[in-house]
Automatic annotation (TrEMBL):
Sequence ranges assigned to domain Fructose-1-6-bisphosphatase class 1 C-terminal in this UniProt record: 186-319
Main location: cytoplasm
Organism: Paraferrimonas haliotis
Cofactor note: Binds 2 magnesium ions per subunit.
Keyword Cytoplasm applies: yes
Any single GO BP term: fructose metabolic process
Pfam families from the UniProt entry: FBPase (PF00316), FBPase_C (PF18913)
Lineage: Bacteria, Pseudomonadati, Pseudomonadota, Gammaproteobacteria, Alteromonadales
Family assignment from sequence similarity: Belongs to the FBPase class 1 family.
Recorded name of the encoding gene: fbp
Subcellular location, record wording: Cytoplasm
Subunit composition and interactions: Homotetramer.
Pathway(s) it belongs to: Carbohydrate biosynthesis
Protein name (database record): Fructose-1,6-bisphosphatase class 1
Reaction it catalyzes: beta-D-fructose 1,6-bisphosphate + H2O = beta-D-fructose 6-phosphate + phosphate
UniProt cofactor(s): Mg(2+)
Amino acid sequence: MQSLQTALQNQQTDPELSQLLELLADICCEISNDVRRGALAGVLGVASSENVQGETQKKLDIIANDLIKRRLAELPSVKGIASEEEDDVVSLHSDGRFLVSFDPLDGSSNIDINSLVGTIFSVLPAPEGTLTQASFLQSGRNQLAAGYALYGPSTLMALSTGQGTQMYTLDPNSQTFLQLEAQVQIPATTQEFAINMSNQRFWQAPMQGYINDLLEGANGVREKNFNMRWIAAMVGDVHRVLSRGGIFTYPADHKNPDKPFKLRLMYEANPMAMLVEQANGLASTGYENILDIEPSGIHQRVAVILGSRDEVSHCLSYHA
Ligand code: F6P
Ligand code: MN
């Protein structure tokens, strides 16, 4: 198995970008060690603060955020960062070429039940001039790299620099990532869907119609039965989609009129959309390709429908 470092060299990745991606992998390895030690590392439980979206932060959210911030500051090529756990952007090196957006610990409600969590990251080119929130407001098509680490029974990392999506596994002995798959391919068709069904009555008509038809299974218009899975951590659900196909969606809903969407564009939807598209899948809001969205804010939320190409297209036909 080739190492992440060798794989990036073989892909002729820009050396400074490779250095940044290797650092991100190293940071994820450190977070993985904290996740594994759990209670022993004192990382469980709720911290006393709230993040910018008014959600309670778990201790590990803050630990992971501070770790990523501190370690990225070591690299002169990083101009600034945006994080789910930071209200504003953080300036690092004024001459840096890269901007990094990240969700330090996705699925944090899973920590205390010892279930799947992960780290999601996205790398954008840094525009000239002073760093502001506007520096980050670039469409997902501009991403130079995107990836996630999944802290599961083993720690895995999915990564794309625009040459397909690669999957790596963390070797706990060497503390390095080794390549498992050089070209992840999401099957075009599927019989598996992921959605939080408890929100059904709050969805808009197109999603109601689509899911109703799935639930009718072999007796309905789809003429086949579907299975449902929901991990409550996007990183876990997207990983399943990359592994064996499926459709994952967090659609618009009117449960809370001030918050029609759940997932964040810059550090959840965009990086996952790049990984999925690079693995031959599709990622849309229902009306627009996620990677084509012109962002209006660093913590902007969007509807997400992603996964197996034919199934996502089918779902989009209800939105047409
Ligand atoms: O980061 C938001 C998030 O935790 C995702 O990782 C996950 O897909 C979703 O929210 C879970 O939502 P719910 O709480 O509705 O199951
Ligand atoms: Mn998240």
